[in-house]
């Protein structure tokens, strides 16, 4: 049942070249508009914060970028691959941590991550080395053999991050990776993201302004399903402070 690996020709990313592209993305549910004409790019070897209030359309956009949702209009590309046309090939280059990502509570981190690797076509020495690598990177060695159901929120989130990076993808899409964590757990996740950003392209959704200051090279701010700002954190601040600018750009957002 193990899926045979699909060979994807991918040169090392060129800094500045976009590896994540949203082009005119729209998603409609009947008369309800979740997102409308969302366009942005994430350059290679950078961290872009996808910022916005709750319900702004962040998760919908990320699900389209990862192929979990089909857009009503527009296109999404990962490393130049159209997700709608080449979903499996794109998934080989992509790691995804959804908000409240599903885990198997009766499994241990080791058994769960081994299962994830086998589903991705990994095996033998390659899988063993990958398991050792993510256990160390995500600092989950001490709970390696404990049932996931017994783990704290922080450890569960780190197991979720481990599955996202197990196959060493070029691109990471992380949906609210620090949601619900305490300050110590948040700091661990931030350190991990900054380490990963040295050789990966990361889109990280958040509504927490401190995440922008701590991790992001660029910001895309969305409100009521539409992009309101794109630029650097300094440009977003504009001398007014991030909190003031966030309120200014999201004024009148739907509750």
What does this structure look like?
Helix 6 links the parallel strand 7 (171-175) and strand 8. The chain has a six-stranded mixed sheet, sandwiched between helices. The chain has a four-stranded antiparallel sheet with strand order 2-1-4-5. The protein folds into two domains: 17-93 and 169-255, Rossmann fold (3-Layer(aba) Sandwich), CATH 3.40.50.300; 103-168. By secondary structure, the chain is an alpha/beta fold. The radius of gyration is 18 Å and the shape is globular. It has helices spanning 58-65, 87-92, 109-119, 124-137, 153-165, 183-196, 209-215, 233-237, 242-249; strands at residues 18-29, 32-43, 47-51, 73-78, 81-82, 94-97, 171-175, 201-206, 218-223, 226-231. The model is unreliable at 1-11 (pLDDT under 50).
Query: What strand line-up does the widest sheet have?
Result: 6-7-8-3-9-10
Mass-distribution shape: globular
Radius of gyration: 18 Å
Helix content: 25-40%
Instruction: Name the CATH superfamily assignment of the largest domain.
Output: P-loop containing nucleotide triphosphate hydrolases
* CATH fold description of the largest domain: Rossmann fold
Largest sheet: 6 strands, mixed
How many DSSP helices? 9
In short:
By secondary structure, the protein is of the alpha/beta class. It contains 9 helices and 10 strands.
Tags for this entry?
alpha/beta; 9 helices; disordered N terminus; 255 residues; 10 strands; Rossmann fold; four-stranded antiparallel beta sheet; globular
């Amino acid at each position: 049942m193990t899926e045979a690996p699909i060979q994807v020709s991918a040169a090392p990313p060129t800094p500045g070249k976009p590896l994540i592209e949203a082009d005119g993305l729209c998603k409609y549910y009947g008369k309800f508009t979740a997102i409308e004409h969302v366009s942005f790019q994430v350059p290679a070897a950078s961290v872009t914060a996808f910022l916005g209030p709750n319900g702004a359309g962040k998760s919908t956009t990320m699900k389209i970028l990862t192929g979990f949702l089909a857009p009503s209009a527009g296109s999404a590309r990962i490393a130049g691959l159209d997700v709608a046309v080449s979903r499996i090939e794109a998934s080989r280059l992509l790691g995804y941590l959804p908000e409240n990502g599903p885990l198997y509570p009766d499994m241990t981190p080791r058994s769960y991550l081994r299962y994830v690797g086998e589903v991705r076509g990994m095996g033998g020495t390659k899988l063993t080395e990958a398991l050792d690598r993510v256990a160390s990177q995500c600092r989950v060695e001490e709970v390696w053999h404990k049932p996931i159901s017994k783990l704290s929120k922080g450890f569960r989130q780190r197991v979720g991050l481990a599955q996202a990076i197990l196959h060493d993808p070029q691109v990471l899409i992380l949906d609210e990776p620090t949601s619900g964590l305490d300050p110590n757990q948040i700091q661990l996740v931030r350190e991990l993201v900054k380490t990963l950003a040295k050789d990966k392209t990361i889109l990280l959704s958040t509504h927490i302004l401190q995440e922008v200051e701590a991790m992001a090279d660029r910001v895309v701010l969305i409100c009521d399903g539409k992009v309101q700002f794109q630029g650097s954190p300094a440009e977003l601040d504009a001398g007014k402070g991030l909190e003031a600018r966030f309120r200014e750009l999201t004024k009148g957002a739907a509750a």
